[in-house]
Design a protein that fits this description.
Strand content: 5-15%
CATH architecture: Alpha-Beta Barrel
Number of strands: 12
CATH class: Alpha Beta
Structural class: alpha/beta
Largest sheet: 8 strands, parallel, barrel
Helix content: 25-40%
Number of helices: 14
Strand order of the largest sheet: 3-4-5-8-9-10-11-12
Shape: globular
Radius of gyration: 21 Å
């Protein structure tokens, strides 16, 4: 069997990945109350590296205190985060892996209960109704731009192989891109060139603080799937501006936490025809971009993943939920076992994280419990038979 294109090395900027399979960032719900890295997070990332993932994109780490979106979220907003993050990076490297840190800010989706502050927003109007909201001044924007640069420097000092700027899924930078959220009339609102301005300034800030050679990715929505939200055409224009500004790669996703059935994490992916639900957008973006494109969104089958790369739809394939169930999925596929990922896309994995215990595959845990119960019952039955014999 010839080696699949998925297992061939490929570069993102100065970083060479051993294969084209990426673990897309998610909220694990495993950080300490103050956002510090925990042993559980270190172990999770280490398992992914040991399982053969080409690139791990860790968490969505908030860069400023008011950007804290949900409990259990990782932080990179202060220097005392560096030691814990360094343990994570070291564990990944010890298992031969590569890891970048996703940098994020909740914006209007930040938890005012957790932060004790009004939520930052592009404007007073637009987006979901929220009683405690603060429209960002240009000084607030400048401070936030600098915060992303400082966060990237912390990631580099901690030993991470790069950073990803999170500009998707309805968080702060995604809000600036979206006319549904962003009603500004200054240089940060109006046409897409203005709405993308904060992202371009952040990319320059990351380069200034972390260095021009430090691998820099951006996660971007193909569209918001909200009435009046970011369109595919405007997103493509933003992607071209981001590439021109020096990003090393774009990871393409879509939808927001407010997009209902068209959210980023869609349930009930039961066949190949339901997989890679942003592939049409990816094909359009790939044709225009001159930097690598990673595609995320419902990919579960080896043949679909391989077809995306062979077909020129994407350079890299990203998955998230499948690695919750199977951190060793890449090694399984590489060994020749090309069965579909075991993830059934029921999204129950996020329930434990919402309850404060961190995410895990509920189906797998229930299956183990049932097997142990059945095994115990069989053992008791055998003992009774021996007694009667």
């Amino acid at each position: 069997m010839s080696e699949s294109v998925l297992f061939q090395p490929a570069p993102i900027g100065s970083l060479v990945l051993p294969n084209r399979l990426i673990r897309s960032a998610t909220w694990e719900g495993l950080a300490a109350a103050d956002g510090a890295c925990t042993d559980e997070l270190v172990r999770l990332m280490s398992d992914l590296a040991e399982g053969g993932v080409g690139l791990i994109i860790s968490s969505h780490a908030y860069v400023r205190p008011e950007g804290f979106a949900v409990r259990g979220q990782l932080a990179v907003d202060r220097d005392d985060c560096i030691a814990g993050l360094a343990r994570m990076a070291q564990a990944v490297h010890a298992n031969g892996g590569r890891i970048v840190l996703q940098l994020a800010h909740g914006g209007v989706l930040a938890s005012t209960q957790l932060t004790g502050q009004p939520a930052f927003a592009p404007s007073h109007e637009g987006g979901p109704e929220r009683t405690r909201r603060r429209a960002m001044s240009q000084a607030d924007i400048a401070d936030t731009v600098a915060a992303y640069g400082h966060a990237a420097l912390r990631a580099r000092r901690a030993g991470f192989d790069g950073v990803q700027v999170h500009a998707a899924h309805g968080y702060l930078l995604s809000q600036f891109l979206s006319p549904w959220f962003n009603r500004r009339t200054d240089p940060y609102g109006g046409p897409i060139e203005n709405r993308a301005r904060i992202i371009l300034e952040i990319l320059a800030s990351v380069r200034r603080y972390a260095g021009g050679d430090y691998p820099l990715l951006v996660k971007l929505n193909s569209e918001d799937f909200l009435e009046g939200g970011l369109t595919r055409e405007d997103s493509l224009r933003a992607a071209l501006l981001i590439a021109e500004a020096g990003a090393d790669a774009i990871e393409l996703s879509g939808g927001t936490l407010l997009s209902g059935k068209l959210s980023p994490s869609r349930p009930k992916i039961e066949g190949v025809e339901q997989e890679a639900y942003f592939r049409d957008a990816a094909r359009l973006f790939k044709a225009r971009l001159r930097i690598p494109l990673a595609l995320v969104g419902g990919i579960r089958s080896f043949e679909v993943a391989e077809g995306l790369v062979n077909g020129g739809v994407a350079d890299f394939v990203s998955m998230s939920r499948p690695f919750i169930r199977e951190p060793g999925l890449v090694n399984r596929w590489k060994s020749g076992d090309r069965r579909r990922a075991a993830c059934i896309s029921d999204n129950r994995c996020f329930g434990p994280a919402m309850r404060g215990t961190g995410f895990y595959c509920v189906v797998e845990k229930e299956g183990r419990a049932e097997a142990q119960k059945s095994g115990g019952a069989e053992k008791e039955g055998s003992q009774e038979d021996m007694k009667r014999g």
